[in-house]
Model the fold of this input.
Amino acid sequence: MQTRVKLRPEGDERFIFIAGRHWIALVLWLAPPLAVLLGAGVLLVARLLSRSSDVLGRQAAPFDAVNLLLLLMTIAALAVAFYIYLDWRTDHLILSNKRVVHEEITPWLSFRYETIPLDQIQNVNVRIEHVLQYVLRYGHIEVQAAGPTRPIVFKRATQPGLIQQRIMDEVRREKRAQEERRLREAVERRLRPTPSPPPSPPPLARRSHRHPLLDTLLPLQPIEQNGAIIWHRHWIVLVRQLLWPTLALLGWLGALVAVVRFDLLAPLTATVVLGLALVAVLFFFFWQYEDWRNDIYILEPTRIIDISRLPFGLFEDRREATLGVIQNVNAASPNLVARLLGYGNVLIETAGQAGNFTFDHVPNPDDVQRIVFDYRERFRWQQREREWANTLTMLDLYLQARNSGNTPQT
Done:
């Protein structure tokens, strides 16, 4: 059976190895519904075959209350077994030329991606816990990264020893290949300097084509500004925050109808009271809208920024860290509503004093995860290339001094 994954390669990325869970995991998960299916099915067939006739020779109805319940239990057990099978098929450990990804999808409900770049992987452990795992050739895989990053644990994997070998081989190969390729490019640029190409636009998978003013007032998609990407929380958060102002407005409309219909207040008093109440309700709307719009997550070419502030500058909490301290980025869409509406959470784990960053309720969390990794990779290689450029400069100065006869003679 061909392995199919939801995740797609990005850019020059290629998938090298895709591992699934061993069939024993499916058997263990299917045991409860299959037990219900077997018990209810056998009992239903037995009751159908043992139907007796009354004194007039008429057979009893095939589906009385008990048989109907048994039939429903059988159908429910079949449905649960089929869902478990789909769930078993959609869990993968993916090895690419850039990263290791644990893709965990709960069909029609949620998804979660745990990712560790190859250059952050420290070791890969295999755990065989009992003789059954040894005989059937399955076990647990644990991919550990540098720093405080949480390891990826893939349980009941098929041929865990082979997976371990493939991951470690690719880690060593990719680290050597990237180092050699970029060092060669740095030397070639030194020997044959050419104008630097313009920076490529941020790799957004879903670009906004709306008017900039509309994006500013209602930022439903990421916004690009001078190489930086700005995310706001998903519009569902705004809808939730506007729920109470909407109820307040409905209450104001009810009060307006009651005052006009039953003449509860004098006209001047009613105008003043209702006017002030309307201003308060509209201010409530504006406060909630501004509170939503002021919470932003910014990804720049050199740093990430998390800003949370209240309207009118009453409070602001600004946290930032350089891209170099990012250890890992995990994306999750926690429930069915989040999957249907396309939002989730992104956890950015860092080794710096700023701690971890959580981008809550962002649109398309898997896109955010991919983009953060892309920016981090660019930043780290730019740092390495600057180091190489300094080394080449020192070598040039040394050769110039030697050729001019200024080096000390030994």
Observations:
- The CA atoms of residues 2 and 315 lie 54 Å apart.
